[in-house]
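This section describes the prediction task in plain terms. A model, or a person checking by hand, is given the sequence of a single protein chain and must write out its three-dimensional structure as a string of tokens. No templates, partner chains or ligands are provided. The sample shown here is typical of the held-out split.
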Amino acid sequence: MSKKTTIGLICGGTSGEHEVSLVSAYNIQAALDREKYEVLIIAIDKNGAWFLGSSPELLENTHDVRQVTFKKNLPTALPQTGSSANENLTAKEQSGSELAEVDVFFPITHGKLGEDGALQGLLELLGKPYVGADVYGSAICMDKDVTKRLLQHHGIPVSRYKLLRNPKDLSFEDAVRDLGDTLFVKPCREGSSLGVSKVRTAEEYKLALQQAFAADRKVLVEEAISGREIECSVLGNDSPEAASVLGEIVPLREFYSYEAKYVDDDGAELKIPAEIDPQVSLKIRKAAVEAFLITECRGMARVDFFLRDDNTFILNEINTLPGFTKISMFPKLWDASGLAYPKLLDRLIELAQE
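The expected answer:
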């Protein structure tokens, strides 16, 4: 009997997407084939401390993204200097030998310090394969400004925007003149629509800038695109495989916010596959694969578009660590494309080992 592959499933983290990450991790560990894999759960708390566990019971209240958490009466994976919590740990636990036994790391740490290349850099230092984009692709795609500039250079359409490094860089009047009456204000390096505001007045604009700059020192002010929200999943490394079928998100609120994605059961309707002209669908899927390559992605990405009434489209953003919750589009799109959840995880692990 061949040895099982040990998967180090990293979840949690210090970002505002901590809870979503825990739910994603619970779903992933539940779908991994235990005939093939041993699973070590590595949970990072909101202060950055790492904890180890091998049982899914490590994660609690996984049915509710508002209450999900993990038990902390566990061995620490990265002992902190001077921490009394480490005094009773065995030498094995303190040496981190459990991490050394991991064959493939599977980070599902959405947001800052988990999806932006920081964690990927640490995994590079460990010399172990890991699922998803490397340092370069992660850093590029986390920065919406850098992503847009690269895509524009290669002729892939993106929304008009202004980059701000100071709230005083762009007045509301100038923003409206250049970008239109309705604007989106968002942190440059956040995910899951955290810190994003849709604004139509000067007062809303002022508050939106405060909120966005509280999350990041780079802020985007974008035009509001009128169109259908279309998403596509991509798998592969240097030669990406064909993109998935397309899915459509129909927001039932003002826009597809964090709450609509993960908290509000009635926040949006998902249509898979999306009802789109086949030729337009093919163009979007090709653009998704091209964008995957342009931004140095590896392993996986979910590429989000806006489709206008005239069948032209805008690429909105690229997500290198998409959600794996029960309502997440990335696995749903592959399932609709004939690649079921467990087989999708097998493929991602294969791509990490490639």
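For orientation: Residues 278-294 form the longest helix (17 residues).
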